[in-house]
Specification:
With about 170 residues, the chain is α+β, with helices and mostly antiparallel strands. Helices cover about 30% and strands about 30% of the residues.
Length: about 170
């Protein structure tokens, strides 16, 4: 069948189709790349937030238990041992080798309470430490806890002073 001369063909040429495919591919690759960047950023921020939360929760647990302690049995810059209302010995230790804060009740196993604790030295003192208001362990009325968490270059410094109620 012969087409009439004045009939116009409609549709896309091969060049137009190939051009649109190339432009679409570039857009899809750009969107996929941005999605990957956003996912990496989300994962990184999530890990930082989890470590910060770990330090906050460790500080809150330690503060709450220490406030209700009946006696302070032993205290150094990296170790805090006290007896709670139930008569159990609770030990918190700043483990410099593993950069963690651990908790142990009685003869039980140590549990990690906070991760990514920093033990940098500033002004001649380790930044993460326990401090006591008296030279003699029997006269302590105020205990100050310093924790510095570091993860992925971000720092979190928490300081809290606790006056045990039952000493």
């Amino acid at each position: 069948m012969v087409k009439p001369i004045n009939e116009v063909e409609s549709g896309f040429t091969l060049v137009e189709i190939l051009t649109s495919i190339v432009i679409s591919a570039i857009l899809v690759l750009g969107i996929a790349s941005m999605t990957g960047i956003f996912q990496d950023s989300f994962r990184s921020n999530k890990a930082v937030n989890e470590n910060e939360q770990s330090v906050y929760l460790g500080m809150n647990l330690l503060t709450r238990e220490l406030r209700e302690a009946v006696s302070l049995d032993n205290g150094t810059a990296s170790n805090l041992e006290f007896t709670n209302l139930a008569g159990n010995t609770i030990t918190y230790e700043l483990d410099q080798a593993r950069n963690i804060l651990t908790r142990k009740e009685g003869a039980g196993a140590k549990a990690v309470v906070a991760n990514s604790i920093s033990f940098d030295v500033e002004d001649g003192q380790t930044v993460s430490r326990f401090e006591y208001d008296a030279g003699n362990i029997d006269n302590v009325r105020l205990i100050t806890i310093h924790l510095k968490g570091i993860y992925d270059g971000k720092q979190l410094v928490i300081e809290n002073s606790v006056a045990p109620r039952n000493f």
